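Encode chain A's predicted structure.
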Amino acid sequence: MEYLRCVVARAGDCAGDGNHSVILCRLMDLGGLVPVAGVTAQVRVGSVLTLSGQWTEDERYGRLFSVTSFEETLPETASDLEQYLGCGVIKGVGPGFAARIVQRFGTDTLKIIENEPERLLEVPGLGRVRVERIRKRLGR
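Encoded structure for chain A:
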């Protein structure tokens, strides 16, 4: 059994049954994108997952990670937070803005977004439109 931590970059229903899908994930440790099979379709882009399973070969997707179980988690480190915020889940917030946000707030970033989203305006270049997008997607 192997374990991976990743951020969902793209989700899609491959099986056609609405229950299982092949999703594209960005690995937290390595940063590369890999196809992942066997995760329920309710997982959203931007979700941070801890996966257990094994590497397999697929005719359509090539090498992919076949999941036996998974858990949705929150990012734990500053690096994880940067990847989580910068993965494209929030329009207009890419790796550059994600790095600036995490540099300013560190591991308190998610607490700030949830409880004091107006403080995001402290980040150079981050305007009200982006702050509102972040608040709607991740805050209360």
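The mean pLDDT is 85.
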